[in-house]
Design goal:
By secondary structure, the chain is an all-alpha fold. The protein has one domain. Helices cover about 80% and strands about 0% of the residues. Helix 1 crosses helix 2. The longest helix has 22 residues. It is globular.
């Protein structure tokens, strides 16, 4: 449940608080890109410690 809550918080931050991500028509691409980038960052943080 905490992982789901964290994902929802990241989604809300990208959708509502980053205005540059919502200027074009491809708002979903910007949101998904930010979430994938965050996941890769966390994976590398855990892997490389």
């Amino acid at each position: 449940m905490l992982g789901f809550a964290a994902g929802v918080m990241i989604y809300v931050v990208v959708e509502e608080l980053i205005p540059e991500a919502q200027q074009d028509r491809n708002t979903d691409v910007a949101t998904i890109g930010a979430m994938i980038g965050f996941a890769v960052m966390m994976l590398l943080d855990v892997a490389l410690g």
